[in-house]
Amino acid sequence: MQHSIATVSLSGTLPEKLEAIAAAGFDGVEIFENDLLYFEGSPRDAKRLCDDLGLKIMLFQPFRDFEGGRRDKLQHNLDRAERKFDLMQELGTDRILVCSSVQPDVIRDDAVIADDLHQLAERAAKRGILVGYEALAWGRYVNSYRHVWDIVKAVDHPNLGIILDSFHTLSIKDDLSRLSEIPGDKIVFLQMADAPVLAMDVMEWSRHFRCFPGQGEFDLPAFLAPILQSGYHGPLSLEIFNDGFRAAPTRITAADGLRSLLYLEETTRQALQASSANLENAKSAEALFAPPAPSRFDGVEFLEFAVDDDAARRLATWFQKLGFAHAARHKSKNVDLYRHGSVNLILNAEPDSFAHAFFVAHGPSLCAAAFRVDDSRAALERAKLYRARPFESRVGPNERQIPAVRAPDGSLQYLVDKGLDGRSIYDSDFDPLPGGVAAAARTTLSAIDHFALGLPAETLDTWSLYFRAVYGFEAEHEWVLPDPYGLVKSRVLRSADRTIRIPLNISENRNTAIARSVSTYRGSGLQHVAFAADDIFAAVAAAREAGLPLLEIPRNYYDDLAARFDLEPAFIARIAAANVLYDRDPDGGELLHVYTEPFEERFFFEIIERRGGYQQYGAANVAVRLAALAQTRARAGQRGASWAD
Amino acid sequence: MQHSIATVSLSGTLPEKLEAIAAAGFDGVEIFENDLLYFEGSPRDAKRLCDDLGLKIMLFQPFRDFEGGRRDKLQHNLDRAERKFDLMQELGTDRILVCSSVQPDVIRDDAVIADDLHQLAERAAKRGILVGYEALAWGRYVNSYRHVWDIVKAVDHPNLGIILDSFHTLSIKDDLSRLSEIPGDKIVFLQMADAPVLAMDVMEWSRHFRCFPGQGEFDLPAFLAPILQSGYHGPLSLEIFNDGFRAAPTRITAADGLRSLLYLEETTRQALQASSANLENAKSAEALFAPPAPSRFDGVEFLEFAVDDDAARRLATWFQKLGFAHAARHKSKNVDLYRHGSVNLILNAEPDSFAHAFFVAHGPSLCAAAFRVDDSRAALERAKLYRARPFESRVGPNERQIPAVRAPDGSLQYLVDKGLDGRSIYDSDFDPLPGGVAAAARTTLSAIDHFALGLPAETLDTWSLYFRAVYGFEAEHEWVLPDPYGLVKSRVLRSADRTIRIPLNISENRNTAIARSVSTYRGSGLQHVAFAADDIFAAVAAAREAGLPLLEIPRNYYDDLAARFDLEPAFIARIAAANVLYDRDPDGGELLHVYTEPFEERFFFEIIERRGGYQQYGAANVAVRLAALAQTRARAGQRGASWAD
């Protein structure tokens, strides 16, 4: 299908926006009038710019408060429209969006409104223009697509049709059943927007919190599928009002926009197939984006840290205290494998490598994660079709090239499968060290349960969409958590089978632990790695014996735990003695977990035991961890600079 | 009255919070349980900390979901309460807040709830504890103070009373008429919070957007006055959940909190006097804070810029192009007066002065503003009582010490009156320059209409409260305006007679013009000065002749203006030729204004003509100015660094 985006969705001046839109691969744009208003060139200049960039101007918008106004204003309103038609001719576009009136004194009479729109359509016909009438969710009288459609049908003019916008329909939880009765050729334009589910005034919600499909929580395939079935084959367009987008880098937002439309196409195709709907009319359904299906994942194969020799020694000490053995050394590079049971951590200190560049930019940090997939070639193909940038590393003779892509922050994600020869990547690329395997055989940790990233606040939507589109991950509902110095938002992206879970954490303020982490890394970075244990007490005992610095939990936490849950005093005493935190979900699932102190103020480790199907992350305990950390810092006299300093 | 604040209102660890609360001058605190939970000491340690700081622990809170629960849980809930009573005894506090249940299965029966609360009160009585029952606005069954009061009356137990919270009452626009029937001694505690008026879910509103009295839009005196009349003489306490406060410097927030309670006392006293209410019972009304009344203002006497000799020359050039003459030189300092009619601008390049320190820290910038008042001594006294920091400058022989205070960013605000001798401050401190007065006599500008400040986002509440409390200014409703690289919020603080108007502008994002300005100044700073003109065209003609660089407005703006308003083509041609922007208010008042280009990317000037009682600031045109500026910058290839760089 053709892809379009409204200029209002991006930051910057009109030329900056158009260049980014073309670079992302869109076919066309909706010109939002204000962007033109503040453009220093003429409308003809704007058209020339679009022509040069290969962009079609698909729509001009919005034209407000036209229909059902005071009768003595009708002539003025029609004149006003003629001026906009002039402007459209200069722009070379033939479609205009007329949104339903928000005037308090709008005439609440369909016949009057139909008559006004008829007059407008007559004038449009003389200019070869198509008028699209759209319901604003907060329109004073007309506020649903159903009402618009009734009026458009009544006017029955070839130059008047309907414009559908997913936000205005889904935000008011409107009945979708009549979408399929609108013939495709009466749909002048189709705007797609997602949004997080928020309990707030719909206009404010619309104007500040819309997001790209796949970044929010709306069921967009349920909206789009019947429209495609009714024969619509025009463009899919994005019209997003979002405070974050207004401040985000233009090109990145535009690239996200295109990816979101591909994702919308794929998920809508799946919905159409699942419903075994009659696809005869949905010609455009055939044209929907169809990448290879998402991989079946089987956990995190390894995490790789960028280090130099010195940082490698420091971090290796931590790994060893966590029970990891130095298991192997890379055949041709300054790279070491640490292993505990089937859990792998890699330290990469190779000069002139990708990891080295990462180390120089960010210090000791997570530079790559490897996911176990069933078919790495198909996984890479899917990622590339979703515009992820592939990465090929320098390999030595007989070493394996592992398929990889760059995540939004430039770190790598490897896609590892069993391969045709059944040998592991370590067999081909590493020399085992004597004793390493034996030492790592006494296992208390069974897997990487999850690893959390701290992100710059404005990148959360980019990351969410990336994981959903590129890997078919699912996004869990967002949590807001208190930090002693601000609020932190957390959203988990995970594979369908939950073998890979990646909490993404952001902070709007700059004094929180997350903000500090983002600042430390100069970008996004690892916040913590959580290892799964079958027996948390055994794991803690082993870790303590090895000298792992566990975070001390205030006694008051356990007193309160006793008041909150019916727990045996002996059990509370046991977890308190081990600094183990506790959480329980409504179904009785339980979480027991411990945190380490941070490694050089960068990241920390967690050991967790899930009992009885507990699927969360102990969010209730995050505050006590942050407070304990803050106290550690306060003791050390560290605190973020304040604006009053 | 006594002043208290809930620990949840501030950022930081418990010790940091308590120290800031004591330093601000509060008498006591509400201990919010989570703060204790994350405190590494025991409750006894927390009490000792408070004792050492001279703070009384006035309340322990919250105790949730107690009443009307499942019958088989009642014993557990009572046990839970006993544990909290233990904790309260260690803390040495005798009051606990029980908030109404939010459980979906709460028993909707007043008799059951009353019985539960009776049992709780009986247990509390044995421990010498007072239970305060409070309605959450989103309580599942009990959600208004009126319902709480009915139940508390029915229980009729000496150890059970009501807790009132202004947010929970005003947010649901509850009927206030029954507040006066609650005897003062049945009010266990009184919590005061303000909030901006927002159309959103009340719980979200409450948890993220509360603010201190005087920072929001609630009519708090209408809430507090009847409570005082009913004989309440306990403390006024602040319980503020606010995302900004969670991230703001603890001590500044605490100081704002105390100032806000003083302001609440003053405005409530005024409300009581205005209502000529029966004050017999309102003993505490006598104790309400009573500073000297706000000044009568008469405009801005001068604006003073911190410069060095070089910056003085550059800025003087701009002043001269604006029509200002070099009118006088300070008798003992490197300070110059520029004058246009009755408008005064001062350049201060004196070494070792306050202005010099300001220049070193912020570059060429606004370091002081002088307000004309009727009685500068009373104005200073009021400011000091509101905890503003007075400032005394070094004066030479026979020079006048002008009363001054420091604004929240450390800049000065002078309070200038006619003085007893009738001589102006310039007569006593300056030597007039020959020709200066004559040159400045050809006036096109009549006054400083307003001057706008760009602030770090988290300081807006501090500044709003400062102007309202210290000067009795009024706060206008907040505007949100688009910038090409983000959104900008603007709130005007002004004197009652509008002779002083100060728009305060903030940006949450870091790429907007405001954010750039804040970054340039390393703090808050002048964004622009708007001069009033009686004839904008004459003023523009004079400015052009003098070579003042006016901002060029895109032609498309004027085309759209013609579509929006019924304006004569000749008029539009005239304003377009002069780069004059236009706005009209619903009552027909008109604004005509021009902008200059920015002075060294720091601030700019505006010339405005108000017609027909127009009282706004041309917000509709801010976007075109910002876009025009952004285009100027884009042409110059400047753009904020992005996170993806």
Task: Please tag this protein with its features.
homodimer, 645 residues, alpha/beta, TIM Barrel, 2,3-Dihydroxybiphenyl 1,2-Dioxygenase, domain 1, 3 domains, oxidoreductase (chains A, B), dioxygenase (chains A, B), EC 4.2.1.118 (chains A, B)
Describe the structure.
2 copies of one chain form a homodimer. Chain A is an alpha/beta fold and 645 residues long. Chain A has 3 domains: 3-286, Divalent-metal-dependent TIM barrel enzymes (TIM Barrel), CATH 3.20.20.150; 297-439, 2,3-Dihydroxybiphenyl 1,2-Dioxygenase, domain 1, CATH 3.10.180.10; 445-635, 2,3-Dihydroxybiphenyl 1,2-Dioxygenase, domain 1 (Roll). Helices cover 37% and strands 24% of the residues of chain A. Chain A is built from 23 helices and 26 strands. In chain A, the strands form 3 sheets. Chain A has a 9-stranded mixed sheet with strand order 14-15-16-13-9-12-11-10-17. In chain A, strands 18, 19, 20, 21, 22, 23, 24, 25 and 26 form a 9-stranded mixed sheet that branches. In chain A, strands 1-2-3-4-5-6-7-8 form an 8-stranded parallel barrel, surrounded by 6 helices. In chain A, 54% of the residues are buried. At the A-B interface, α2, α4, α10, α21 and α23 of A face α2, α4, α10, α21 and α23 of B. Chains A, B: It comes from Pseudogulbenkiania subflava DSM 22618. Chains A, B: GO terms for molecular function: 3-dehydroshikimate dehydratase activity; dioxygenase activity; metal ion binding. Chains A, B: Its EC number is 4.2.1.118.
